[in-house]
Write a structure and sequence with these properties.
- The protein has about 450 residues and is α+β, with helices and mostly antiparallel strands.
- Helices cover about 50% and strands about 10% of the residues.
- The protein has a single domain, classed as Cytochrome P450 (Cytochrome p450, Orthogonal Bundle).
- The strands form 4 sheets. The protein has a 6-stranded mixed sheet with strand order 1-2-3-9-6-4.
- Helix 13 crosses helix 15, helix 13 packs across helix 18 and helix 14 packs across helix 18.
- The longest helix has 27 residues.
- About 50% of the residues are buried.
- The protein binds protoporphyrin IX containing FE (HEM).
- The site of protoporphyrin IX containing FE (HEM) has 26 residues, from helix 12, helix 13 and helix 18.
Length: about 450
């Protein structure tokens, strides 16, 4: 197979393609496949190759020894979030992944689903008829609490959640944008840099107190943090295996921070975009209402309901195709290699940009249209590997994919089961400029209790 390559025109000195990526990230990313199967862009001053063909993206994702985590994005992640399982290089990854993987076992997921249920119920209980809700912000709070309560089985009061909420948000808002800034500018005492540094320090303090609380408790709570602490303690007792399989203090911090960063805004963004798309598609909303009403019949959604909600899950998957929250990551080549007929020397930056493939017209019929039935098994089967990469792929595929899908499905079902949402004035659904997770700037929705407006639900 012959692949086409091209340089994308319009790069500016210093910021490269930063301007169109900031102003219209989806249009820019979606247009890349029109230039070629492997295209060259500038991430700030750095030249990067973006695979726009599913075969090439799949090769990059699955050959993580050659296309290792690195490049401008992961360099910034390592210097802020640290060297956790999501950002560490290949030679550390398998060991770290083995340590965190048991926390994502399907049996554990059943228990986490109880937390998800409770958070979804508490979110929808708090809303009032006629209220205008800032959708992403509400969902972000629920998702952050869910990760904290599931993986760090901690009793959290509102104050403790707030300790994490603002700093996680500040860090995530700036990480991607910082790829486009020279390091010298990032060190200047500018207000944005100071806010960022304060947020990182605040997060470190918050995590330190969380870990200290665990050490004092000394009991296994059956969650991720207990497993991380125990792995360390066991190794400390076992002289025969110094460091083997264990995590030191810094690594524990880095894993906690990784989970908070990876598991909060991604879910909030996925459900926000789902609600935005449904607002523009009355037919899909009516189908969703029918499914949710049949399965839930007005009661709160629970983890066991998820298998009975296939259309809800397809809505979430289609939202993830159109608006993949993780939209721009980088890799660096560790040796000379060939990609799509193009020779890449060691040290070359390759960008994993899911929308470049997700919106490719050669793969998806009417790629910009919202069509949840694309994900009916018989239609989805026809897609090549690499055509849907919202969770990445290969050994570095999202560890929380089932967690994230279950949570998003439950949240969406819980919301639409009780409330009718309509976009309100003052919304701005353009994606936040260069945010780490692709999310709407401000999605305001007016909510009304569904049983108060049965006629508006059509056949539901
Ligand atoms: C809809 C929700 C989510 C989406 C779209 C998503 C997306 C992704 C993507 C694209 C990657 C790979 C990045 C790369 O290859 O550079 C990733 C990695 C990861 N995600 Fe998620 N994620 C979601 C939810 C979660 C949740 C809820 C958690 C944890 C509770 C989580 C934990 C992780 C971890 C630990 C990694 C690193 C895996 C590794 O390198 O071994 N994610 N995620």
């Amino acid at each position: 197979m012959t692949y086409t390559t091209a340089a994308v025109p319009g790069a500016l000195p210093v910021i490269g393609h930063g301007w169109p990526m900031m102003r219209r990230p989806l249009q820019f990313a979606g247009s890349l496949s029109g230039h070629g199967d492997l295209v060259e862009v500038r991430l700030g001053p750095v030249r990067a190759y973006v695979p726009c063909h599913p075969d090439l993206l799949w090769r990059v994702l699955t050959d993580d020894r050659t296309f290792d985590k690195g490049g401008p994005f992961f360099d910034r992640v390592r210097s802020t979030i640290g060297n956790g399982v999501g950002s560490c290089p290949y030679h550390e990854h398998r060991r770290q992944r083995r340590l965190i993987q048991p926390s994502f076992h399907p049996e554990r997921l059943e228990r986490y689903a109880t937390v998800m249920e409770q958070e979804a119920a508490s979110l929808t209980d708090d809303w009032e008829d006629g209220q205008v809700v800032d959708v992403y912000r509400s969902l972000y709070g629920a998702a952050l609490r869910t990760v904290l309560r599931s993986l760090f089985a901690t009793r959290l009061d509102a104050e403790a959640v707030d300790r994490f909420r603002e700093p996680v948000e500040t860090v995530l808002n700036q990480l991607t944008a910082r790829m486009f800034l020279p390091r010298s500018l990032q060190r200047l005492p500018l207000p944005g840099n100071r806010r960022f540094d304060r947020a990182v320090a605040g997060l470190r303090r918050g995590i330190e107190s969380l870990v200290a609380e665990y050490r004092c408790g000394g009991t296994d709570r059956g969650d991720l943090l207990s497993a991380l602490v125990a792995a360390r303690d066991e190794a400390a007792r076992d002289d025969a295996a110094p460091g083997g399989g264990s995590l030191d203090d810094t690594e524990i911090h880095d894993q906690v921070l990784t989970m908070l960063a990876a598991g909060s805004d991604s879910v909030a963004a996925a459900v926000s975009w789902s609600l935005h798309l449904l607002d523009r598609s009355p037919e899909a909303l009516a189908r969703l209402h029918r499914e949710v009403d049949t399965v839930l019949g007005g009661r709160p959604a629970s983890g066991g309901d998820v298998p009975g909600l296939p259309y809800t899950a397809r809505v979430v998957t289609e939202a993830l195709r159109l608006y993949p929250p993780g939209w721009l990551f980088t890799r660096v080549t560790t040796e000379r290699t060939e990609l799509g007929g193009h020779q890449l020397p060691p040290g070359t930056t390759v960008a994993f940009c899911a929308p470049a493939v997700h919106r490719c017209p050669r793969l998806y019929d009417r790629p910009d249209a919202f069509d949840p039935d694309r994900w009916l098994p018989e239609r989805a089967r026809a897609l090549p590997k690499g055509a849907f990469a919202a969770f990445g792929g290969g050994a570095r595929k999202c560890a929380g994919d089932a967690f994230g899908l279950t949570e998003s499905t439950l949240l969406l079902a819980a919301i639409v089961g009780r409330w009718q949402l309509r976009r309100a004035d003052g919304s701005d659904v353009r994606p936040v400029a260069l945010s780490t997770a692709l999310r709407p700037r401000r999605l305001l929705m007016e909510i009304s209790a569904r049983d108060a407006h049965p006629a508006e639900d059509g056949q539901s």
